Amino acid sequence: MDQVDINGGMTTKSDLKGSDKFFFTAYADVNIHENMIRDHSRTQTYREAIMASSHLLKGKVVADVGCGTGILSCFCAKAGAKKVYAIDASAIIEQAKLVVKENNLENIVELVSGKAEDVQLPEKVDVIVSEWMGNFLLFEAMLNSVVVARDRFLKEGGLILPSKCTLFVAPVDSQKIYERRIDFWSSTKETYDLSMECMIPFAKKRIFGSVRREDVPSSEVVGKEQELAQIDINTVTIEDLDNVKGSFKMACNKTTKLSGFTTWFDAYFEIKGKETVVLSTSPFATRTHWNQAVLYFDEPISVKEGDVLDGSMLVTPALHNDRHLDIKLNYSIAGGKPAERNYNTWKTPGPVEMY
């Protein structure tokens, strides 16, 4: 049976397709929650948005979809919510119970074990809060659970935090990765008196065939970013999420070597009567644990200042695992021959830990 490599482990396609075991097991580990909560920009922005919504939360009922350690549920309780249903299918929910108890919020926050698609709540909710965003925005497909929870539990006209997200794309010159990861195989002759240049095609296939999670310096962005897609969580459907697509047209702002394209997202907390709170994962904003996602070319391409880049992207659930992504990139440079490249997030997505 065919196998795919998931972060170093071999898993069969049949095991992965439709299975959430790997996903929920991963989220039971303390490291991933430490990494998220240590991300001050992420956690503080959520806290700021929830507290800014206190006039809408006071005396209301909230569902926290994918509550993890329960931190957002506790924020909602402190902001005045009457009741918070903290939903999670991972074993981390046992720790969330302790967090809720430690903060004396048991009378407000009720832990609900299970998937949002399966659990039952005794009442409709006024607000849904969730931190569902993944690498390339849609990696892990947790937004699907939020959409299902919205349709099952949210009162008409209810509040969703965040309410919208925008995916951006920009060209990058990140030649250091070629020097670090590709040229390395040419250096073994001098270092060890052993030639290993035959490894270069393999390295390129493994590294540049997948979406790379990178900390992109703003200086490496060589063109004005453009909106690739916008998702309104109030109205998006599961069918919409099966085919997220967008086009772009931008000019290079310098003569350089083009390494590929980077993407990032902004999340918007639209709060009636208050200024919109924005969580940005841009290279020009405070660093977050999401970093940026990069689609590298096999070889850097020479471009001149003013060269126009035309292209489009199609993002779909991966064939091997519907929590992962397949990305089809089409582009042309300065009116040249159109090219197409395919990427995925089911190989090696890149560094995970922020600290």
Strand content: 25-35%
Coarse structural class: alpha+beta
Q: What would the principal axes of the Cα set say about the shape?
A: elongated
- What does the average pLDDT come to? 91
Helix percent band: 25-40%
Number of helices: 12
What sequence of helices (H) and strands (E) makes up the elements? EEHHHHHEHEHEEHEEHHHEEHEEEEEEE
**Distance from first to last alpha carbon:** 38 Å
- Report the sheet with the most strands, covering strand number, pairing sense and barrel closure: 6 strands, antiparallel
In the predicted model, the low-confidence regions spanning at least 5 consecutive residues are 1-17, 348-355
Rg of Cα set: 22 Å
Number of strands: 17
Outline of the structure:
With 355 residues, the chain is an alpha+beta fold. 27% of the residues lie in helices and 34% in strands.
What features would you describe in this structure?
The chain is of the alpha+beta class and 355 residues long. 27% of the residues lie in helices and 34% in strands. The strands form four sheets. Strands 8, 9, 10, 12, 13 and 14 form a six-stranded antiparallel β-sheet that branches. Strands 5-4-3-6-7 form a five-stranded parallel β-sheet, with helices on both faces. It has a four-stranded antiparallel β-sheet with strand order 11-15-16-17, with no helix packed on it. β6, α8 (142-153) and β7 form a beta-alpha-beta unit. α4 runs parallel beside α6. The longest helix is centred in the N-terminal third of the chain and has 13 residues, at 40-52. The chain starts with a strand and ends in an 11-residue tail after the last strand.
